[in-house]
Amino acid sequence: MSDMPSPPSSGRANHRRKIVVFGEAMLELSGFQTDTCTVSVAGDTFNTAVYLARHGLEVTYATSLGLDPISDLILSKIQGEGIDTSMILRAPGAPGMYAISVDEVGERSFTYWRANSVARQFFTIAGVDRLLERALDADMLYLSGITLSLFGMADLVRLRDLAAAMRSAGKVVAFDTNYRQSGWQSAEHAREAIGLISPFVSMALPTFEDEALLHGDAKAEQTAQRWLDLGAEEVVVKQGAQGAYVAGHDWVMPPAKVVPRDTTGAGDSFNGAYISARIAGAHPRIAARMGHELAARVIMTPGAILPRDAEVQ
Fold first, then answer.
1. Please, what is the average pLDDT of the chain?
2. Which domains does the chain show, CATH number per domain?
3. Residue 268: Cβ-neighbour burial (10 angstroms; 0-12, 13-18, 19+)
4. Which of 127, 144, 189, 272 has the smallest count of CB within 10 Å of its CB?
5. Is the torsion defined by CA of 284, 285, 286, 289 positive or negative?
6. Are 220 and 262 in contact (CB under 8 A)?
7. What are the Cα distances from residue 173, in Å, to 22, 118, 235, 270?
């Protein structure tokens, strides 16, 4: 991948590449039993930001939060992960929230309360222009389809312009489709929004099932080829227990079969481990294997994020 920042010579602690992750951090309710649940902070891009930071990368999270105690709690959680919060704007409004429901085989579904999330106001809050300029100093911009679903077309154009500027400057623009039908007016709207960003994506990390829903893909190789045709230089198509298709390097299978307790955050953690390994200089196949290994641990734990005391390999 020609525009990936050059990896350091050695030593995990020196892998300090600057990454701006843009999205929404929400309250997560998981582990429902009869009358109890676990309350934590999560969200697809935030999950990835956490795993990037735990691998020693310099991560800044860009979003907007409210002025209420719950938003303060979310901010504290982000800071507690060693993630830079200087690109978080504050404004009146409520943060988003979601609940995880898990079936008998560990497959998850979500119920969201985020229609009026303050994260949707990001581009209207004073100071946003300065933050977008600061983002250009990073080595990588990380986005997802869920992030795009927060915004109207005018705001998406501003996000597209940021991605275009970073790609033009030789920076990495990483993107995970992460398509959730409930977050979009229609599949056509999702395709239009993603279509704005896709020409400027240099590292595509989609999940096959999402691409099949959006584009009718029959196999992961077809998904990979479409992203390559759009201009991506590195493509990994995740397909759960069936492995990951690494464009130009064939399939990489998970090291072991596990019975998941909760599949929430599987793809997000894969992305975090994969990107971290690539920045450290690992071959894409090795990086994909590391993605599988972390995802396997995540799906054995309720919720999207491993406990802080869990070692991230």
1. 90
2. 15-24+44-63+132-298 (3.40.1190.20)
3. buried
4. 127
5. positive
6. no
7. 11, 25, 12, 17
CB count within 10 Å of CB 243 equals 18
Segment 108-112 mean pLDDT:
78
The predicted-structure confidence for 270-304, as pLDDT tens digits, reads as follows 999 999 999 999 999 999 999 999 999 999 887 78
Q: How many residues does the chain have?
A: 313
Distance between CA atoms of residues 54 and 154, nearest Å:
34
SS3 state at 149: coil
Check if the beta carbon of residue 194 is closer than 8 Å to that of residue 159: no
More confident residue, 226 or 29: 226
Q: Is 101 helix (H, G, I), strand (E, B) or coil?
A: strand
Token reading at 115? 């229609």
Order of strands across the sheet that contains 250-252:
88-90, 58-65, 18-22, 140-144, 172-176, 203-204, 234-238, 244-246, 250-252
Global pTM value: 0.91
Q: Take residue 166 and report the two structure tokens written for it.
A: 């970073």
Average pLDDT over residues 63-86: 96
* pLDDT level of residue 154 (50, 70, 90 thresholds): very high
